[in-house]
Amino acid sequence: MQIAHKIELKANNTQMTYFKKACGVARFAWNWGLAEWDQQFKSGQKPSGMALKKQFNAIKESEFPWTYEVTKYASQQPFLDLQDAWKRLFKKLGGKPRFKKKGKSHDSFYVGGDQIKLDESKRRIKIPNLGWVKLRESLRFEGKINSVVISRTADRWFASIQVEASNSFPRHENQVSVGVDLGVLQLATLSDGVVFQSPRPLQKLLRRLRRVSRQLSKKIKGSQQSKKAASNLARLHMRIANIRRDTLHKITTAIASNSSEIGIEDLHVKGMVRNPKLARAISDVGLGEFRRQLNYKAEWRGAKVVIHSRFFPSSKKCSSCGKVKEALSLSERTYKCECGLTIDRDLNAAMNLNPVPKALREITPAEMTALRRSVHPVFVTSIVETGSQHQLLCG
Ligand SMILES: [Zn+2]
Questions:
Q1: Residue 341 Cα, ligand 1 centroid: separation in angstroms?
Q2: Which residue is catalytic, options 107, 261, 344, 346?
Q3: pLDDT per residue over 321-361, tens digit each?
Q4: Model pLDDT for residues 137-154, shown as the tens digit of each residue
């Protein structure tokens, strides 16, 4: 299984200069290859990434000697990427590859695993022609390193390390099922009563985001002040994205590690249909990302994710007697049923989403109260910005 772990680098000035240079070499090779490709294609030839790479390498030493100042991969990988881009175009999976502009497009370069080393603490990475660069956190996965992509977001540098990981997660022994209700005020409510709140630092940053964007709109375009405000804004966006991703990782890891069967609803679609305002807020907290993470983490651990249809009345149904209400407004935070059940709306929905609902009916009202007491804002103080993410690429 291939996993990528993206970690922020603590690069000094010399290292940043190298990164910029390597990105420049990668951009140059891409643009050179693309121009050649276009020309050969127009003259009726059949260009290929491999052939163009050979052509480039034949003149590299005499015409582009500066490409030797950085890892050879910086000027080699773009040809393989071009090949992929054209393949995708022919399969109608992507658009025509475009020329890369300095500073405009996403700056990055690739290094093959054979040229990469990590030190024992896994807190430093060795880049060819450069030496050791510090990582903000250690690599989370064991296994052979296949490749690293160094990239820039705003003024920060990241290494996305591709690891050939062995599947070493413990399988679930106990059969524990859980229902998860996804929301906006409370990111996730679990049928066992645990609630994951939106982290407070995030709420603060979102308020700041509104202020900074307002400031930017008042500055004169192209001015020094406007550039500064724009870079502020980009940094803020990145911090917010990092906290969101980090929160989602914590929640999905907690859920996937504790349960063997997880029920969620197809809320993304449902939300869109029902309420555009709510849908906006939902996409803001990244619930599509939530599902993606939950799916692969569950798969790693041999757990099952059950996605209920968007027509499943998770909110309107009584989790105790099963009766379905005809209407339930969004402002009704407490669910009250004729059978005597009075319960938090989200908790009721989570209980309905539990794939093994039989056990739910056996919960007494007293236990229900105890469940409500165990509700706590898990992440209010524990969120740290790590600038990290991991994702499953294939397998
Ligand atoms: Zn009822």
A1: 6
A2: 346
A3: 889 999 888 788 889 889 888 888 888 999 899 887 644 44
A4: 888 777 889 999 999 987
Instruction: Give 342 Cα–ligand 1 centroid separation in angstroms.
Output: 9
Give the residue with greater pLDDT, 229 vs 281. 229
Query: Can 81 be counted among the known catalytic residues?
Result: no
Instruction: Cite the DSSP H helix spans in the chain.
Output: 13-42, 49-63, 73-90, 200-218, 224-258, 267-274, 276-284, 287-300, 345-353, 358-361, 365-373
pLDDT of residue 390: 25
CA–CA–CA angle 326, 331, 337 (5° rounding): 45
Beta bridge partners of 323: none
pLDDT > 90: what percent of the chain?
A: 29
**Other Cβ atoms closer than 10 A to 182:** 24
The residues whose Cβ lies within 5 A of ligand 1, an ion, are: 318, 320-321, 323, 337, 339, 341
Q: Is 265 a catalytic residue?
A: yes
pLDDT at 374: 42
Q: Ligand 1 centroid to 347 CA: how many Å?
A: 14
pLDDT category of residue 173 using cuts at 50, 70 and 90: low
Tell me, in angstroms, the distance from the centre of ligand 1 to residue 320's CA.
Answer: 5
CA of 390 relative to ligand 1 center, distance in Å: 42
Distance 191 CA to ligand 1 centre (A): 16
DSSP letters for 203-250: HHHHHHHHHHHHHHHHSPTTSHHHHHHHHHHHHHHHHHHHHHHHHHHH
114 is catalytic: no
Q: How far apart are CA 93 and CA 129, in angstroms?
A: 36
The one catalytic residue in 8, 181, 261, 289 is 181
CA angle 376, 253, 187 (to 5 degrees): 45
Q: In this structure, what token pair is assigned to residue 378?
A: 């898990």
Task: Please check the confidence at residue 234 and state whether its pLDDT lies above 50.
Answer: yes
Of 317 and 243, the structure prediction assigns the larger pLDDT to: 317
Q: If you measure from the C-alpha of residue 278 to the centroid of ligand 1, how many angstroms do you get, rounded to a whole number?
A: 27
Catalytic, out of 8, 265, 289, 344 = 265
Four-CA torsion 42, 47, 53, 57, nearest 10 degrees: -60
